[in-house]
Amino acid sequence: MKVKNLTLNASGYPDKLKSIPTPPEQLFYLGADPTDWLDRPKVAVVGSRGVTPYGKQVTATLSRELTERGVVIY
């Protein structure tokens, strides 16, 4: 999958991001266009250097179940 890039002045740059006080000059993303997911609920998943097998399993299960319900995972 190729990383896509939108600059602040590009026609496809999301209006929702343009309206914030300091919008990012560039937006890098994989997969669906940001306008497809910007209004959906989002969750950030942060890793650990000392992850356990149980932690990996719970993270995979939770992430899969959230995405199946339309939540965007960062």
Supply database-style keywords:
3 helices; 74 residues; two-stranded parallel sheet; elongated; two-stranded antiparallel sheet
Protein model, in words:
- It is a single chain.
- The chain is α+β, with helices and mostly antiparallel strands and 74 residues long.
- It folds into two domains: 1-38, no CATH class; 40-74.
- Helices cover 32% and strands 16% of the residues.
- The protein is built from three helices and four strands, in the order βαβαβαβ.
- The strands form two sheets. Strands 1-2 form a two-stranded antiparallel ribbon. A two-stranded parallel sheet has the order 3-4.
- Strand 3, helix 3 and strand 4 form a beta-alpha-beta unit.
- It is elongated and about 45 Å long.
- The two termini are 16 Å apart.
Short description:
Helices cover 32% and strands 16% of the residues. It is an alpha+beta fold and 74 residues long.
Task: Give start-end ranges of low-pLDDT stretches.
Answer: none
Sheet with the most strands? 2 strands, antiparallel
Percent strand = 15-25%
Radius of gyration, CA atoms, in whole angstroms: 15 Å
Assembly annotation: single chain
Can you write the helix and strand succession as a string? EHEHEHE
The rounded distance between the terminal residues' Cα atoms is: 16 Å
Helical content band: 25-40%
Overall number of structural domains: 2
Strand order of the largest sheet: 1-2
Shape: elongated
